[in-house]
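Hi R.,

Here's the chain you asked about this morning:
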Amino acid sequence: MVGMEVTGASSDTVGQLRDSIQWGIGPDAITANDGLRVLLGPTTFNATRNAFRQFLSAYFHSEAQCKKEQGASISPLAGGATGWKRLKVRWRYPGAGKSGGLRVLVSVNCAERRVILSRIEDRRSL
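And the predicted structure, written out as tokens:
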């Protein structure tokens, strides 16, 4: 979804929101993240990562605020430590095809403005 438009906010505003969040990756997501970096190459990986961050940033600052689904792309999940919310995010990347892409478990702490990619699975291997 590189180059995806975010409705309701200018790209400058969404970019500022993205940059104001502390992004992290959990130990269960590192191997998949590294594999995706190799598969896509550095330029496409960075563009895809930035588009993913921009997409989540717009969602966090929308009406949904981590409480509502966004189509088939973002689904809030039960559980999570106190102060944290969990989201299941479906994300396509270049070359993954219509039924491919990633399923990403994201942990979010809105008060601390922190996001951790907790788990990444390739939907083609599920």
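The CA atoms of residues 26 and 118 lie 5 Å apart.

Let me know if you need anything else.
M.
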